Amino acid sequence: MKAENFPKEIQPFLIPEAKGKLIYRCLGCESEHGIEKLLYTCPDCGQVLLLYDENFERLKEIPGKTWHRIFDYRKMLTLPALKGIYLYHEFIGPVIPTDAVVYLGEGHTPIVEANGLMQEKADVKFWFKNDGQNPSASFKDRGMASALSYIHYLLKVGLVSDVLAICASTGDTSAAAALYASYLNPRIKSAVLLPHKKVTPQQLSQPLGSGASVFEIPGVFDDCMKVVEHLADHYNVALLNSKNAWRILGQESYSYEIAQDFEFEMEKKVVVVPIGNAGNITAVMSGFLKFYECGIISSLPKIIGVQSEHANPVYRYYREPEAEKRRFVPVTVRASVAQAAMIGNPVSMPRVIRLTDQYNRLAGEQRVFFAEVTEQEIMDWELTANHNGHIACTHGGESLAGLVKARKQGIVDKDEEAIVDSTAHALKFAGFQEMYFDNAFPPEFAVTPDTALINRPVLMRPADLEKVPEPGRPIGGKDFEHFVRRVSEEIASALQLRSL
Ligand SMILES: *Cc1c(COP(=O)(O)O)cnc(C)c1O
Ligand SMILES: [Zn+2]
């Protein structure tokens, strides 16, 4: 719709201008730093940073109800810069001019209600939010759209040139980084570091296809992360891991979309997300907090962070009920089907601690919870969901398994409704489904297939047929008619079809 056709009172708000004053703030020493330079950690004490808008108060002057209308009307604009995460420009990156926004189709992913059977099984009403329907098939595109729009802005104003973007990854970060960097080719080149044999073939194909330099490193993600941190400390590179606070800003769009999808009613809502490096749960909390502070939502939804028992440092930290006694201890990860979350020493742990505390304090009660699930539960729930119309990845299975556990433990009530994050597309992790169907999981996963969920192709090649078609060698006449009839009979018998 054309801007002049919107209601008069909304028109001044429709197309945002670059405003606000973003600064990095250190979570350790609280020092503040300007955004002219790309910082990943505090130059004073080395802790992680978050971005804050020093002029955030101005957003509170606009009534919550007006914000609802601004966001709802903005959806009808055809301006590409506002079609993705920057629909929430004032909250995502107020300093970024719209002509610097990199939009590749990310965000506004579908919310799909679970069918009756699934809701019965889970004993609670829930939706999947399909973040696998982002351009590189995971939620990581949200953060990359933000980080690369910011770098694009720095390029445009001449604060940087010839950027080499680099990241360590469990697979999806590198796919997203390589994709977004390639859009700004040749001004940005990208390099990704992956743990050797610890990403799926689909994930490996993505940065290769985008033309990034791909390096495979022995060990697990935590080892790659150390190398990439060393590179960022000693060489002229732009780090794209979620240590980069711009990633967190972009991922807040996930919360804003959920709020808008439910007409800004967050009462009795539960948001379930898997945790790996803990950037996503940080962003989800931060996003809801900002909307709450501006009166855009009037209650904070419950949040449940889920981890596999094979990579559970955050869950372990919060298992201690007394805050003063909690101590963070990194864990040595074991094999996990939630491979993109197989992280023993999450970079965003200080952010999680800070925001969880703030979230619970503002809500006036505990609203952030953590759940732990087994590898078996992850696979069983993923496959069950996908038997019922979903396209959940293993991490989506992990989220759902976490919801079910939280429901059983009474953390989630019967009258609450959950939004479950399927962080990537099922196809990225199809290899784990194959292992399940072939009962071929190496013992360290501790997954035994439930025969009711196993599904395998059946080769129909009736033994009595002498001639069958082959690629490039068709058969004709009576032979072909015989082939079609016999194969049909076999299929009809396998499916127990009645004849007409
Ligand atoms: C990165 C990733 C996660 C974990 O997110 P964090 O922000 O690292 O906690 C979960 N699922 C998928 C599919 C991912 O790619
Ligand atoms: Zn500091």
Q: Could you estimate the helical fraction of the residues in percent?
A: 25-40%
User: Biggest sheet, in brief?
Assistant: 6 strands, mixed
Bound molecules: pyridoxal-5'-phosphate, zinc ion
**Backbone structural class:** alpha/beta
What is the topology, as strand order, of the major beta sheet?
4-5-13-10-11-12
CATH class of the largest domain: Alpha Beta
Domain module count = 3
- Beta strands, count: 13
Low-confidence stretches: none
Radius of gyration: 24 Å
- Our estimate of the beta-strand percent is 5-15%
Mean pLDDT: 97
Shape category: globular
CATH architecture type of the largest domain: 3-Layer(aba) Sandwich
CATH T-level topology of the largest domain? Rossmann fold
> Between the first and last Cα atoms, what is the distance in angstroms?
53 Å
How many distinct helices?
18
